[in-house]
Every structure is written in C-alpha cells, then in structure tokens.
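for the writeup, i need someone to sanity check this before i put it in the appendix. the sequnce is what the collaborator sent (i think, or maybe the updated version? ugh). structure was predicted straight from it, no edits. if anything looks off just tell me and ill rerun, i have time this weekend
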Amino acid sequence: MTLQRQIGFWIACLAGFIVFLYLFSGILMPFVAALILAYLLDPMVDALERLRLSRLMATSIVLLLFVVIFVVLLLAAAPLLVNQLSAFIAKFPEYVARLQKLVTEQGGPLFERFGGADKLKELQGQLASGAGEAAKWLGGVVTGLISGGQAILGLFSLLVLTPVVAFYMILDWDRMVAKVDGWLPLAHRDTVRELIREMDSSVAGFLRGQAMICLLLGLFYAIALSLAGLHFGFIIGIVSGFVSFIPYVGSITGLLLSVGVAFAQFWPDWTMILVVLAIFGAGQFLEGNVLQPKLLGHALGLHPVWLMFALLAFGSLFGFVGVMLAVPLAAVIGVLVRFALRQYLASPLYHGYRQSDTGGGAIDP
C-alpha cells in the first residue's frame, strides 16, 4: 500500500503540474525565462560569493552585467535585423516568382516529355498558388507580431519582468534549493538527490553548451553569407543559428532559405550557389566535429529524435512556454526513464525468478 500511495502521489503531482502549465501557459513566459536565466547565472553568483561578496551584491553585479551586454547586442543587431526582415518580406514574392520561372523553364521539357503540356500548366498553377499563399501567410504573421496588442504586451513583459523576477530568484536560489531538499522523502532522500544531481548535470551542460553553439553558428552563418554577397544573408544566418537548438531543423531551414535566395539572386552563376552550399557544409562540419564535442559532449544523453519529439509535443500543448521547457523536461524524463530501466534490469521481473513463499532460495518460474 505504501508503494501504491507513493506512486499515486507522484502521478497526482505530475497531473497537477500539467494542468497548471495548460491553464497558465499564456502568462508564464517571463517567469519561465527568468527561471532559466536564474539557473544559468547562479554559478557565477556563487563564484562571486566565494570572493567574499554578499549574495545581494553578487546577484546585482551578475544580472546588471548580463542586462548591459544583452541591451548592447540588441541595439547593435536589432536595426539590421528589422531592416533585412522588412526587405526580405517585400522581396519574397519576387524571389518566389523567379524560382517558379526557373523551375518551369528548366523542368518544362522534362514535364512535357513525361506528363504532357497539361501537367506543365498544372504545375505552373500550383506554384503560383502556393507562392501567393506563402507570401500572404508570411505577411500576416509579421503583421500580427508587429500590430498584435497581446504580442506587444508579451514582449514587454518578457523584457521588463524577466530581469526583475530573475533577480529575486537568484537572490533566494540557495534558500529555495534547501527548502525543496527538506521536502524530499526521508527514506529515499539519497536516491532522489542522486537523480536530481544527474538531472542538473544534463540540463545545465546542455543549456550552456547549446546556447554557445547557437551563438557561434549564428555568427558564422551570418558573417559568411554576408561576405558571400547573399541578399539577407545576415538574418538568414542568425535564424539558422538560433533554430539550431532543434537538431537538424536549424541547418535545414537555413539551407533551404539561403539556397532559394541564391538561386533567385545568382542564377545561372553556379559558382555562388555552390559557395552558399559550401558555407552550410562547413557549418555542419564545425558543429558536428568541433563545437558539439567541445561544448556539449554527451551532456543531455538524449537521442535527437526524442529531443525533436519533445520540442514538438510540448510546443503543441503549451505554446512557446512548452518549447522553452521542452529540453529541461526531456532531460528530466530521460533521467527518470534510465533510472526505471536500471531498477527493472536489477529486479526479479527481468531475471525471471521469485522467492518461494516459505522464504527459500530463488527458483525458476
């Protein structure tokens, strides 16, 4: 009965947490961002405390330094990003029309040979319709982000509330950890602490390493594509680097965008198109052979397919808050699953024996 009650208690806690996320996902974004920020900055505050600074002073210095660096980078990059994004939206229908014309001109003889003129006309109509719908959708998304009151309020709360909430979280971080540690069940405290240390190692290593990888990849793609003369290369590179926290998605998104723009801009000059492809090939080599082994290693211990599933699943359930929580929750679930698997492999259920009712030795079932 004790084990059943414990299992029921933790299932109830999990269900309550899921319901809480579902009900309040619309207002949780600044608080989740603050929690992640506090989690990442707390080791720096602890380091300053070891230099005999007070917790309040160390928290103020670290958070103020972070805010100053963030604001400087935002002021430096935001105008260029906004200008390139606006220009890209304005040019998007033209690029799509060029690609449509290129496909029909180069692929027309092939379609006429195998499908006839009707198939070619049908393809042209589908491309034109798809281009119009894509341009309308992209314009609607950007217009909604710019003019939507809820989006503006969310951005304002994210930029203003996040540092304030993060300050109080960092200031009270050690007390919160000690309080939660005091709530752990006494009979299983050592086991739970070991699991929490494993979760902490996975999440912290992945978040810090992946953030640095995204930053370095974004700068590499942005600078390389801009030097190659690709239109909107800076924003395409930044987007590619930012989305790199989703395995393969960031590189594929950036590759498709850059190659599409390169065909529309440089065709029939194959040299520059190959240069763009070479940039993304170099970026993938850099990520897989240098950045990930050095900065990430095996910190998370999760398969990329499971990580992509977690991002999509939590994102569809809880929106952007779910995307922000997907990696930590996936790491926590991974640690718990590995622990459960170890328990199963050490149990009589796996080995196929049971104790006799009279207390004798192990016998075959």
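The chain is about 85% helix and 0% strand. The chain has two domains: 25-173, 188-347.
thx in advance!!
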